[in-house]
């Protein structure tokens, strides 16, 4: 893999970590919403913001929506964790190849080979 390829790989890792962080933030926000909805009873009124309008929503429907959203976010976090682990394995492989190439270069230059 070329230097540019490794650079793009680092950029991909950075973007994936950023996306995962955003999902973690959404997870926290949605957990707070779930906790607040759990404090309500059927006598309370729940509104959902749709564009500039607040629309009355059934409490059970709101709880179900938040629950589905939490399931989705958790699934996406798992997907990014798997993706990041795979990227880390690839980066480690590239590090090993790079270290080997550096040692070969040092040997070709007649310099003692040191640990990288």
UniProtKB/TrEMBL annotation:
Family matches, as SUPFAM superfamilies = Prefoldin
What is a single cellular component term in the Gene Ontology annotation?
cytoplasm
Q: Name one Pfam family in it.
A: Prefoldin_2
Which spans of this chain does the record mark as coiled coil? 70-111
Keywords annotated in UniProt: Chaperone, Coiled coil
Report the superkingdom from the record.
Answer: Eukaryota
> Tell me, what is one Gene Ontology molecular-function annotation carried by this entry?
protein-folding chaperone binding
A Gene Ontology BP annotation from the UniProt entry: chaperone-mediated protein complex assembly
Q: What does this protein do?
A: Binds specifically to cytosolic chaperonin (c-CPN) and transfers target proteins to it. Binds to nascent polypeptide chain and promotes folding in an environment in which there are many competing pathways for nonnative proteins.
Q: Which PANTHER family match?
A: PREFOLDIN SUBUNIT 6
- Subunit note: Heterohexamer of two PFD-alpha type and four PFD-beta type subunits. Component of the PAQosome complex which is responsible for the biogenesis of several protein complexes and which consists of R2TP complex members RUVBL1, RUVBL2, RPAP3 and PIH1D1, URI complex members PFDN2, PFDN6, PDRG1, UXT and URI1 as well as ASDURF, POLR2E and DNAAF10/WDR92.
Q: Which family does it belong to?
A: Belongs to the prefoldin subunit beta family.
What is the protein named? Prefoldin subunit 6
